Amino acid sequence: xxxxxxxxxxxxxxxxxxxxxxxxxxxxxxxxxxxxxxxxxxxxxxxxxxxxxxxxxxxxxxxxxxxxxxxxxxxxxxxxxxxxxxxxxxxxxxxxxxxxxxxxxxxxxxxxxxxxxxxxxxxxxxxxxxxxxxxxxxxxxxxxxxxxxxxxxxxxxxxxxxxxxxxxxxxxxxxxxxxxxxxxxxxxxxxxxxxxxxxxxxxxxxxxxxxxxxxxxxxxxxxxxxxxxxxxxxxxxxxxxxxxxxxxxxxxxxxxxxxxxxxxxxxxxxxxxxxxxxxxxxxxxxxxxxxxxxxxxxxxxxxxxxxxxxxxxxxxxx
Length: 318
Description:
Signal peptide: 1-19
CATH superfamily of the largest domain: Bordetella uptake gene, domain 1
Number of domains: 2
Number of helices: 11
Pfam families: TctC
Family: Belongs to the UPF0065 (bug) family.
Order of helices and strands: HEHEHEHEHEHEHEHEEHHEH
Shape: globular
Organism: Pollutimonas nitritireducens
Keywords: Signal
CATH class of the largest domain: Alpha Beta
Radius of gyration: 19 Å
């Protein structure tokens, strides 16, 4: 059973929600390829909101340039509540990595709600000779040109997870950029890259199928659905911790009352007890706050990563 099918079933639970907006369809823009964690989460949420609002809520994939192509489309959209954007934590750091963005991160969007936190996982192909994190680090130091790692775009959370791993461990690995989590995952499954950093929900199916092996998770604590997989900190890089968050934005200038209503409906959809449990079983931690909470999270992430990205000399390398 596919991960997307499972999430669709989770969100199909019928709950009374507040109908908002007009009869026009709402679009949720996913700035990454279909099949990854961002896309799967968006499709489940779209299904629930469509029921709530009694009108279509459709998902459109607009991948490329570490999520900036799809984000620009939403930034230029009408602030009528009919075009929304699902973003991962790389949205906050894109401005620190790219010399010029086609929008202003803090000025051109309306924060609506954070929805989940998601840990990442360090993967190798099933036949990889590396059995643990320290073996991987040692091999990269012995042959600096030997290893690369797959990731879904410059400045994304999984890319920063990889670069922070290199900085803290001394590992020598060059990133190989793909258009999304699913594409980098398929390349490590196919042994086209020797290492990849992916979200836990996106990778869980391939881990369970034995097509890849999980060396470590990037979160501060072990992930219950991968309980035998150590954290990178436990595996030999003390103090290491990175997670991905996801949230919903709209274009700038949205009506504050409309933003509150959408936030309330997202909260109702995401915080049902069964939904919370089943998302947790997939590796997602539900975390809904107010629009202002989400705005502050984005600002805090920019401040957190600014010195780290600056020290990595990543700006403009896109």
